[in-house]
Amino acid sequence: MEFFTIFWEYRSYFFTGLQYTLLLAALGVLFGFILGLIITLLRMAPWGILRFIGHAWVEFLRGTPMLVQLFIIHYGFANAFDLNFSPIQSGAITLSINSSAYLAEIFRAGIQGVDRGQGEAARSLGMTRGMSMRFIIIPQAIKSVLPAIGNEFVTIIKESSIVSFIGITELMFQSGAVVGITYNGMTPYLIVAMMYFILTFTLSRILGLFERKLKASDHR
User: Fold this and answer.
1) C-alpha span between 191 and 188 (Å, rounded)
2) What residues contact residue 148 under an 8 Å CB cut-off, 6+ apart?
3) Tens-place pLDDT, residues 82-128
4) Considering only CA atoms, which of 96, 109, 94 is closest in space to residue 30?
């Protein structure tokens, strides 16, 4: 009973946190998608220096904690380069670049999964390598990895909780505020856990339906 009482009484806190959580996750996946595709093309470039940059980007971001990346962007850049990002900007940038490293690997696997003969056929028709990638290879690769991109969105929703460390009023920050008001160290966090679960479970089910529809369309 206390669970529902606290949720209803402080619903404005929780729904405000939910809005910021979804906003940050959407921005993280959107810009991570764009950046990840660029990094993938760098990793597959014919020039060694570009491949090195793409490889280093992926390995560094996958090999360091997201919290460290957040602090470097929010506090380190302000100190070293006088770049003062707002908390929401720092959170969105961190989630975007971190997501880009994982999406780059997803895209690379998708591109490598496309039959090489299609690229060769496109070039035999007079297309350049860039044109064949743009019009033939990448569209097919993106379609094949859409479920994995959706799973990355679910992951980012959960990982966005770290931005509470720099004062963004997402779900974890708001639950801490409710704990401070109610002096209840359990129920507000249980409410937030349930909200995260409902979000991720619902999205996972939707993604599952979408993936089955994609497979059905491929078999027609």
Assistant:
1) 5
2) 106, 110
3) 989 999 999 999 999 999 999 999 999 998 888 877 777 777 777 88
4) 96
